[in-house]
Amino acid sequence: MNSNKWKIIIAIMALIVVFPSFGRAWESWNPAARWARGQTLKVCVENPPGDAETQGEFWEAVYEAIAEWNTAQNDPNIQGLTLEAVPVNDEIDINDPNDCDIDITWHNDYEESCEGGPPPVSIHIGYAGLNSRGITRVLKHELGHAEGLDHSAASEIMAENAFSSTNGAPSDPDLNSEDAFPVPNNDDKAGKKAMYGTAQRASQANGESDASRDDEENLWRYNYFLHALVVPEFWIPITEFTVSLSSNINLDDLTITQIPQGWEWALSKVGISGGRLGDDGGAPSPAYLRFWTSNTIFGVEPGQSVEFQISSTLPPRDVRELLRILPAMIPMSLV
Ligand SMILES: [Zn+2]
To answer: Which of 191, 233, 239, 240 is buried most, with the most CB atoms less than 10 Å from its CB?
Structure first.
């Protein structure tokens, strides 16, 4: 296990951190890994305080902070979360997980927090002394916690003293500053990637294959070698590997004779309709032989290689040939 993974595990274990401050409590509860990859989280927002103008500005602050994290997650390397603002009205029950995953409430005090526990995750915004820019900064930080990020000295937004001009908690002028807002950086994105995975394909792994005839057993042996590549920033072990096969391959045609410990496999066919393949007139849908492990302990670490072996009576040059379509093999890393 490399040091980055330890960092994340240590971060997840560091569940609650309370910081001294001068009048403003800047504390957090990290509900790490509560959410599922790709989930859309409903952020229930109580109506902000103040007159119509202030309310409008605070709503803008909410939307700006939400958009920031959503934009960061649009990075094609990250399959993160999507935040969706839901204004609270009479029909919304904040305590119903079907209505709210996260709730934002406004308080005339100096406390900023994000608390986990059973959903919803509660963000407490102490708006005393803050203008809309201060609200935006506080929300960016607390929404980062709500998504599962802990404090990180390498992050401008998630540092324990984020936005502060001193080593302590940020002052009201720090939070309300006209300076440009910091945006999620590589550290924030790496944290997301560790929790919610990556859609990166092929660049992290490649594969080889060969076939050999076993005359004694009267069958063919097909070997697939999956190599996890050492690529900076992509240190998550590979836990999924898919081989495309001809559409008319069936489960009976294959015997899995070697598979890494802790891995499972299944054959699936897409586009099945009415018991037929490809009956929409298009090309036959391929069959997919999918290997996966649901435990990252058994994943293939960068630099490692693993072997999968299949036997079949079908020869490579059969209409159901296996090797012809091997360039379509797609190593995937999905954690
Ligand atoms: Zn915090």
So the answer is: 191
CA of 73 to the centre of ligand 1 (A): 20
Ligand 1 (ion): residues with CB under 5 Å are 28
CATH number of 205-332: 2.60.40
Place of tokens 């939070």: 175
Query: Angle 229-231-232 (CA atoms, 0-180°, nearest 5)?
Result: 155
Span from the CA of 267 to the centroid of ligand 1 (angstroms) = 45
Phi and psi at residue 141, to the nearest 5°: -65, -50
Q: What average pLDDT is seen over the chain?
A: 74
CA–CA distance from 270 to each of 99, 180, 246, 275 (Å)?
Answer: 34, 48, 12, 11
The arithmetic mean of pLDDT across residues 203-210, rounded, is 68
Domain boundaries, the chain: 3-196, 205-332
| pLDDT at 1 (0 to 100) | 42
pTM: 0.55
